[in-house]
Amino acid sequence: MNGGQAAPEQTSTATDGTGLSRRAALAATAGLTVSTSGCMSRLQDLITQQNVDQLSLTITTPPAESDRESTRIARRLEEALKAVGIDISFEMRSGVDFHRAVLYDHEFDICVGRHPGATDPDFLYEALHSQYTDESGWQNPFGYSNLDVDDLLEKQRHATETDRRDAVTNMLEAIAREQPFVPICMPDEYRVANTDRFADWTDGHLATRSGYLGLEPAADVETLRAVHTDGRPTENLNPLMADYRGRGTFTELLYDSLATDNGTGELTPWLAESWEWDGAVLDVRLRNGCVFHDDEPVTAADVTFTYEFLADMSSGDDEGETPAPRFRGQVDAVEAISIRNRDRLEIEIDAGHAAGERALLVPILPAHIWRDRSDTGGGLGNGALAQGTPTAVATNNVPPVGSGPYQFGSRTEDSRLVLERFDEHFTRRAGVDLPEPTVDEVSIDIPPSQETAIQAVVNDAADVTSAPLDTELVDGVETSSGRQVFTSTPWMFYFLGFNTRKAPLGNPRFRQVIARLIDKEWLVENVFHGYARPIATPVTEDWVPDTLAWDGRDPETPFLGADGEVNVREARAAFEDAGFRYDDRDRLRVRQ
């Protein structure tokens, strides 16, 4: 054949033994060669030009005005990735939009931000377990899936107290190898407080309810004036929304939990007067006579409802479960609940003691209000919150009704939130030895910047900066006899997150190389001005194993360079060792 046409009939009698003349055979062979060569050439072009292209990624981060450190980390990463041949675009989103894109819609490639962390490493169970890959919130927003890591997450959760440290170490080492996200540093937390108007600032962590209770006000001081540089608490007071809630500080003032953590990881009975643990069941006794802010009683039925509702906001009406975007990993430890009487219940725990106690930290919701929020008539914008969103998530929950030490007073959106003391709270009872609300109200004002917030305390227009200060501002704060800078134990951390649902971000070798483009020591000194500690694992210092202890460099993914500058030759070699290739223009290629 030749160009798809049959060769003409030959008259010569000389043949090649098949009845086909030698001339015809040669012609056919030539035609086949030309035809196949053209097809192969086109096929090669198709593979090399259409299916392989320069790798392009987008870095998503909050804007500088709300999180300067995240933006600077992301810009530094952008420079490094461009230097090693990756096409990078940069996307800044508002605080709510950033969390919605990452936590709900999973519309990101790489993100840089702050993770709320926790005092116990069990928080990594919900952060990384593969059963949560399709859920919303801080439940595995990275879409990470590894059965071996799942096993380790479960082992540490079920380990006895004597064996748990070894189980946690194995889990942390596996996560450090896999790098589903890159923990960068834990910043020290500094806040400015007025010591003339209030004493005892150091008794509680200001990221928890304990920081605002038990303070000793000066004579005639009736209001605690906080300045908070995040307007979200004035827009939305829904305790279940991951995009509006950070550490949940004000949620803890509005809602009680069965136990409380003052920031050290040690739990104290709170709404629960006591509990007993037999290794499988928590026998919980509630403080009697407690009421919600609308005077409805708090009972064991409300506690039971809360755990069932957080596990499935549809209350069993949908074909599948609809878990809450927050507290999922904590309530997942609860296997069943049995009500013994109005103030007593037994919580069956399918986990070890640590995870069982963490389950006691969720806010207790009034069933008579939240039960009607299980319908799916709500909706918020586009993406995961647009269709079939339960009202429980769509509502802004204003006014909130809890049973906490403070109740909702008023709000002016993006300007002020006022909480009023709830005098019926159990902490105000005689004989209860717990920190209590000591002032009539807490006002939370929203200044335009942290500089303005600091100046408000300096000028005696505010009593405390409730959010941690940007580290670049710490040295500039003027202290006096009536004003001090206080530090709190950190457990929040900065991280680089990968959307492992997308190639090549699902490849652990690729993630390992990216992790090695981040000079954590340099970032701590130049972005955080020394007010942070670089980390190889995202847990508080008392849980860091020796194998992952920081000793001037990352023990698992050491930086490919020096003094913040990437060694491009070494980085390219690392990508090639990981199975990736460069073109003749030094662009990292990826098969589309």
Describe this structure in words.
The protein has 592 residues and is α+β, with helices and mostly antiparallel strands. The chain has 3 domains: 1-49; 53-187 and 491-591, Periplasmic binding protein-like II (D-Maltodextrin-Binding Protein, domain 2, 3-Layer(aba) Sandwich), CATH 3.40.190.10; 190-488, D-Maltodextrin-Binding Protein, domain 2, CATH 3.40.190.10. Helices cover 28% and strands 20% of the residues. The chain has 17 helices and 26 strands. The strands form 8 sheets. A 6-stranded mixed sheet has the order 3-2-4-21-5-22, with helices on one face. A 5-stranded mixed sheet has the order 16-17-18-9-19. It has a 4-stranded antiparallel sheet with strand order 12-13-15-14. α5 packs antiparallel against α6. The longest helix is centred in the N-terminal third of the chain and has 29 residues, at 22-50. The two termini are 36 Å apart.
Write the layout of secondary structure elements.
Layout (H helix, E strand, L loop, with lengths): L21 H29 L1 E3 L1 E6 L6 H16 L3 E6 L2 H10 L5 E6 L7 H6 L18 H12 L2 H18 L2 E7 L1 E6 L3 E2 L16 E2 L5 E5 L4 H4 L13 H6 L4 E3 L5 E3 L2 E6 L3 E6 L13 H12 L16 H4 L2 E8 L2 E6 L3 H6 L8 H4 L20 H4 L11 E7 L3 E6 L19 E5 L4 H9 L5 E2 L17 E6 L4 E6 L9 H8 L4 H7 L5 E3 L26 E2 L2 E2 L1 H10 L3 E2 L5 E4 L1
Parallel strand pairs: 2-3, 2-4, 9-18, 9-19
Antiparallel strand pairs: 1-26, 4-21, 5-21, 5-22, 6-20, 7-8, 10-11, 12-13, 13-15, 14-15, 16-17, 17-18, 23-24, 25-26
Helix pairs in contact: 5-6
Q: Key terms for this structure?
A:
single chain; 592 residues; alpha+beta; D-Maltodextrin-Binding Protein, domain 2; 3 domains; six-stranded mixed sheet; 17 helices; disordered N terminus
